Amino acid sequence: MLVNMNEILLPAKKGGYGVGFFNAVNVEMARAIIETAEEMHAPVMVGTAEVLLPVTAFERVAEYLIPMAKKAAVPVCVHYDHGLTFERCMEALQLGFTSVMYDCSTVSYVENVEKVAEMVKICHAMGVTVEGELGHVGDNAGAGKLENPSDYFTDPDTAADFVTKTGVDALAVAVGNAHGDYAFPPKLDFERIQVISEKTDLPLVLHGGSGLSDQDFKRAVKLGVSKVNIFTDIDKAGKRGIEAGIAAGEKSVTGLIPYEIAEMKKVVREKMELFGSVGRA
Known about the structure:
- By secondary structure, the chain is an alpha/beta fold.
- It has ten helices and nine strands.
- The chain has an eight-stranded parallel beta barrel, surrounded by ten helices.
- Helix 2 packs parallel to helix 3.
- The radius of gyration is 18 Å and the shape is globular.
- It starts with a strand and ends in a 6-residue tail after the last helix.
- About 5% of the residues have low confidence.
């Protein structure tokens, strides 16, 4: 069933478990995620991000994700992640996404508050939920890499003010996490996660989940993280599946699809078990 983020994350926060958000840039990814959620009786969040739109256009993603979510036997939130512009977020609403992240983390605090508060007002009038980001989650490589990530960590007191002024439904935090592959094991600031959770009383979001240790995940969820974003792990799993199919002698794209889906389902299943969302639907 198609739901918004609150219908999934508020029970998660109350129940002390986490829910995975998985980007699905093709039907095979969407199948792997939603079919696994149904098999595991787990709520799940799926969607795309602005940086991934060149891979698969917005309307194409909506064409397969929205109907699949509606038909699912478990709660599925279709979420637009890291929306960088007002226009793109509005497009997500028009296409039927039930949740958006309006990422204004790179602008001034005052502007971040103003922009996100406006987005919340619009989205809530339509029954759509909003995720904001405070601090800034950088990348492990490339143009988004931060020289001193700790300079951009989320401040707990500022987070409480941000939540009050914007009315966001979930808050993405910068606590030592980063997007993409980690060159070295990350060191999450768990005390910061706990304090932010206590001061905001909102579901917290951990971006850059691929590459964290199982223990990191479990501890972060226990301290207040309700949504964990995963893409790199599932993306790599799909590639492994294709390679396994080729090694097995498959000669066509259609022959490779089952291998691709099977490997991605393994990752989704592992994350759902790790986050504690199995049997929660």
